[in-house]
Specification:
With 83 residues, the protein is mainly alpha-helical. The chain has three helices and no strands. The chain is elongated.
Length: 83
């Protein structure tokens, strides 16, 4: 490898690491200053995504005969709080 190429690569890596550090600091500042509404919205989106994935997983388990719909419903009834 040419010494110039080596030095150029080292310099590029240093610049990339510097940019990553700056980006991390900006993200941290943004996260610390973000209103709670943004965090709640993100949590709500994550919750919907998890529910969709759980639904797909349950359908897969039922289609493979590993659990019946009735068994799953029974599990749900067992964990729901009684009102």
């Amino acid at each position: 490898m040419d010494p110039f190429d080596f030095l150029w690569n080292v310099d590029q890596e240093r610049q990339i690491e510097d940019l990553r550090g700056r980006l991390d600091r900006v993200r941290l500042e943004h996260d610390l200053g973000a209103p709670d509404v943004q965090k709640i919205k993100k949590l709500a989106e994550d919750n919907v995504e998890l529910k969709l994935r759980l639904g797909l997983l349950v359908r897969l388990l039922i289609s493979k005969g590993l659990i019946t719909a009735e068994e799953y419903a029974g599990l749900l009834n067992g964990v729901r709080p009684h009102t």
